[in-house]
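User: Just a sanity check before I run the rest of the batch. Below are the structure tokens for the first item. I only need the designed sequence back.
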């Protein structure tokens, strides 16, 4: 009997210890199986409209950043660029002609200034002669009128020089006429370069449903490119677990397709809001489509709301990652957050396609 009681006590103690360890483990390592593999997706859309003349990729093909994806008919834009280039040359010739007009106006002004100075000097010499009757009043009056007319001609010449300089369009050492035409040429050349669409990142082509000859509208998405630079998991954790989770913490991810191969990850952030399912919030302006929506598991009991936690993957075989795949996640909340490691996993630079090849 005594041995039986000891056995019962041992079993009870083991059960209590097991419950305690399980509770502590769940507290230090929150987990969820409601997780999904995600990646950033770049919608490939041309910046100008035109017919597709060459398609250099097929569906599900892997591409590198900078690879040529497709080409549009560039002939209308090349004609516009040629027109803009001719316009620039014409403006430069017009500027030279205006500079010549300024030189001619300045020369004419110089001649008028000389004549005005002579007319003033001649008038000043005749005025004393009038007092001694050595010159007639009519002659003196005519000299005064000629001097006044010469000064007026000087003012007219000065206005002509200013008008010619304004027509030239120079401002702070730059010619605005030439700059405007050069900007138009630059814009036309950009449109020509936009006819060749390049991959903005390393990734895989998906949902390609076009062929050469199809018309691609400006800004209209032709297909998508799954960015392979950063793969992450959106794990929906209960709100009761979020107090222990913070960015930079380590996480272990198990893909449903590879349950026996753990993948390391780092918590990137926690969603601040999800789409609530209450009747009052359904009618709230701007509600649906703005926040993430997490469906409840049951509708007859009150459940803790789940919020998406983004976990950036830093290990595993990229070939096994598929956007939309299911996963399970365990977060280590006992470890210190590693902000430097998280920062190293984030993309840091963009892509600028070449202007003209």
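Assistant: Here's the designed sequence for the first item:
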């Amino acid at each position: 009997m005594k041995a039986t009681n000891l056995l019962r006590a041992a079993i009870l103690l083991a059960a209590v210890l097991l419950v305690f360890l399980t509770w502590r483990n769940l507290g230090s390592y929150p987990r969820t199986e409601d997780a999904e593999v995600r990646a950033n997706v770049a919608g490939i859309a041309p910046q100008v409209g035109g017919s597709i003349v060459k398609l250099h990729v097929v569906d599900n093909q892997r591409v590198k950043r900078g690879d040529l994806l497709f080409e549009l008919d560039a002939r209308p834009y090349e004609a516009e660029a040629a027109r803009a280039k001719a316009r620039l040359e014409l403006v430069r010739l017009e500027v030279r002609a205006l500079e010549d007009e300024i030189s001619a106006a300045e020369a004419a002004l110089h001649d008028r200034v000389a004549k005005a100075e002579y007319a003033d000097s001649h008038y000043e010499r005749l005025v004393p002669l009038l007092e001694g009757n050595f010159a007639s009043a009519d002659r003196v009056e005519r000299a005064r009128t000629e001097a006044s007319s010469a000064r007026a001609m000087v003012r007219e010449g000065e206005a002509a020089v200013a008008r010619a300089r304004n027509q030239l369009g120079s401002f702070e050492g730059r010619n605005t006429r030439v700059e405007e035409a050069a900007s138009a040429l630059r814009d036309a050349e950009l449109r020509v370069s936009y006819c060749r669409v390049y991959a903005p990142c390393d990734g895989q082509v998906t949902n390609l449903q076009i062929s050469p000859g199809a018309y691609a509208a400006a800004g209209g998405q032709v297909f998508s490119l799954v960015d392979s630079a950063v793969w992450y998991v959106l794990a929906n954790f209960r709100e009761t677990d979020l107090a222990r989770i913070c960015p930079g913490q380590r996480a272990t991810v198990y893909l449903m397709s590879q349950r026996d191969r753990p993948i390391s990850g780092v918590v990137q952030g926690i969603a601040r809001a999800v789409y609530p399912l209450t009747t009052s919030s359904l009618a709230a302006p701007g509600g649906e489509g703005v926040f993430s929506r997490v469906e409840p598991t049951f509708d007859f009991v009150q459940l803790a709301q789940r919020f998406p936690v983004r976990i950036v993957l830093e290990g595993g075989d990229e070939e096994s990652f598929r956007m939309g795949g299911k996963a399970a996640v365990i977060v280590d909340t006992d470890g210190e957050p590693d902000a430097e490691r998280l920062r190293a996993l984030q993309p840091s630079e963009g892509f600028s396609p070449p202007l003209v090849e």
